[in-house]
Amino acid sequence: MISRWQVGLVLLTVYGSVQSLEGIMRSNKMSDDVIVSIQDGMIMGKLVKTVGKNTTVYAFQGIPFAEPPLGNLRFEPPVPKRPWSGILKCQKDKDMCVQDVNPVTGSEDCLHVSVYTPNLIGNLPVMVYIYGGAFIIGDSNYKTYGPDYILDENVVFVQFNYRLGIFGFLSTEDLVCPGNVGFKDQVLALKWVQKNIGFFGGNRAKVTIFGESSGAAAVAYHMLSPMSRGLFRAAIMDSGSSLSLWSLNRNAKEIAFLTGSVLSIPANDSKVLITELRRFNYTFLQQVSSSVSTIVTEMNPLAGVYFGPVEETVHPGAFFTGDSEKRLSSGNFTRVPVLLGVNSNEAAAVGFITTLWRLYLTESHPKISALTPADMTDEPDKRFSAGLEIRCFYFDCLALSAQPVEKIVTYMSDDQFNRPTRRAVIDFSKYVPTYNYMFSYVGSLGGVRERIAPGVGHVEELGYLFRTYYSNSSINDILTRKRMVRMWTNFVKYRNPTPVKDPLLQYKKWPIAKPNRLNYFNIDVNISIESNPFKDRMDFWDNLYVKYGKGIYDTY
């Protein structure tokens, strides 16, 4: 156990004007600066109050864990931060990584970690959060993911930035630029946690990694990667997995050289391409990569992300070298307890249907083959035949332009989230305790003002875990939030979301899923225990893969 003296804590109480963290966390009439000595040097954080139970917590924001990936370090694995002298002020969020938005925001100098803890002297379990955003947007800012309610449950909370888009996931599919440096940023951050979390009252042996959407896929990849072994003891995956179609780039080399072509780089040589790409200003390069993404997305919007995870060439520094499903089904992954699930109608989030509306519903002859998952088969005739079966199953054999939006949403929810998550549950449950859920509560904290389809859309559950800024919360909203936070933090503490019968959780005990009985917690106004979600629709997909693919998910 780390002693009081090893922590090297100095409390400097400063009276005077009050500055809350970014004006978000509340502070009283005095502001408490906190200095902690970690392995790389001394940092100054701040003592603040949570908005939930008014718990006193310590916040350290924007601690560098890597050297800025600039110049020749662009597209390279991260380099650990060198020690510094003096006291580094870490009292507000630093720049996010470069974002795929217009206008371009963020910075390449973005590799920072933030730690929030109820107690600097202790041995608390640790939740490490990995943000989502399709691997092209996202940040670890407090305003985005305020952990107030999580901290009220007496756990340490950590979040960090990692490189996104072309800067984090460019790959030439060779040893010049193997790819996945965004994941390698995450590995370095997790190693930083192992080295330093004891200085913040955390227990390095009790780290749970937690991600949502692409962050959930990242968690799944960490379970598959030898680079991440020993860095966590449990995993939470909200609305995403390494089996999700969007979580793997199958055309990375083509996209890399297409980017070079747009920039008039006359090269089919990876070394020349990477050298030239390093010459461009990050803002301009991001703008170009966004235009390339538009071209690629229009080819098939459901095929996967354009700058995202890749299967690397086998080499000593590889993060992931291939075939998620075979490795999961054979148990070749880090075997730790998992909690994973989906929202009741993921694609009901408006953003998930806009591309489909534009590309399919406005055309007189929809692209039938594009309805077929990219991983199922490459044979044109089979892709078309499978697409016809999908259209008949979901859309009564009619053109998509004639369909109500609810049917489009159901298809996309199944294709992009439900079926890959179900398969992941089956695979995980063969080897490790697997807690499966569906979040079905329709409330105000998810931030949806106008619903395009029934059910709970993508991302909404995060409003019941992190601080939100929506008013007029109902009693059921607050109750559901308390339940979600309790279950998720229970899992961090005990690797079991319901270790005891709890009146807050209606005395329910969450049963683990089994391959032949997919038990799940249905989280609604009331909690219910159910099994085999969306069974008829999932059976359709299993049969379709057997008929047109090499087998169920064999081609992942």
Automatic annotation (TrEMBL):
<feature type="signal peptide">
    <location>
        <begin position="1"/>
        <end position="20"/>
    </location>
</feature>
<dbReference type="InterPro" id="IPR029058">
    <property type="entry name" value="AB_hydrolase_fold"/>
</dbReference>
<dbReference type="InterPro" id="IPR019826">
    <property type="entry name" value="Carboxylesterase_B_AS"/>
</dbReference>
<dbReference type="GO" id="GO:0052689">
    <property type="term" value="F:carboxylic ester hydrolase activity"/>
</dbReference>
<feature type="domain" description="Carboxylesterase type B">
    <location>
        <begin position="33"/>
        <end position="541"/>
    </location>
</feature>
<keyword id="KW-0732">Signal</keyword>
<keyword id="KW-0719">Serine esterase</keyword>
<comment type="similarity">
    <text>Belongs to the type-B carboxylesterase/lipase family.</text>
</comment>
<dbReference type="InterPro" id="IPR002018">
    <property type="entry name" value="CarbesteraseB"/>
</dbReference>
<dbReference type="Pfam" id="PF00135">
    <property type="entry name" value="COesterase"/>
</dbReference>
<keyword id="KW-0378">Hydrolase</keyword>
<keyword id="KW-1015">Disulfide bond</keyword>
<protein>
    <recommendedName>
        <fullName>Carboxylic ester hydrolase</fullName>
        <ecNumber>3.1.1.-</ecNumber>
    </recommendedName>
</protein>
<keyword id="KW-0325">Glycoprotein</keyword>
<dbReference type="InterPro" id="IPR050309">
    <property type="entry name" value="Type-B_Carboxylest/Lipase"/>
</dbReference>
